[in-house]
Amino acid sequence: MDRHSNLPLADQQRALANEPGFRDLPPQTQQAMRNRLTQLNNMPPDQRRRLLEHTEAMERLTMPQRQQVRGAMQEYRALPIDRRRMVARAFRDLREMPQPQRQAILSSPGFRGQFFGPGAGDPVQSAGRRAVYSGTAPHLPSSVRQVGSIT
Fold it and tell me: Which residue in 14, 39, 48, 93 has its CB near the most CB atoms, within 10 A?
């Protein structure tokens, strides 16, 4: 994607169509990829960069790690909005901390009580634990960051 980012959209779409294996994909998949390319081109540069970084980070994960992240995100999306805000805020804050400080916070009774406490069946527990402790969620999707920034 980066290789063609300086080209006009029409040239990027031609380059996509010429990618090996593209024409072997089902027509719906081809159209979805064209639509995604158009969507990327319509994004502000910072948002596009974050999305591409997130995509590249996911590509570097092993299949079990990807499944773990997808499962955690699915559970996250099932949370009520107020819990999503809390989880997103915690992710954002933890991501910005140096590793020793992050580990200290994750181990603190206050944090554990807030996210891993009495609500053992609470999806925050499994979503938070899998994504935060495993380190397999290096970046939150922009939808999560946006929810987390709502006050």
Answer: 48
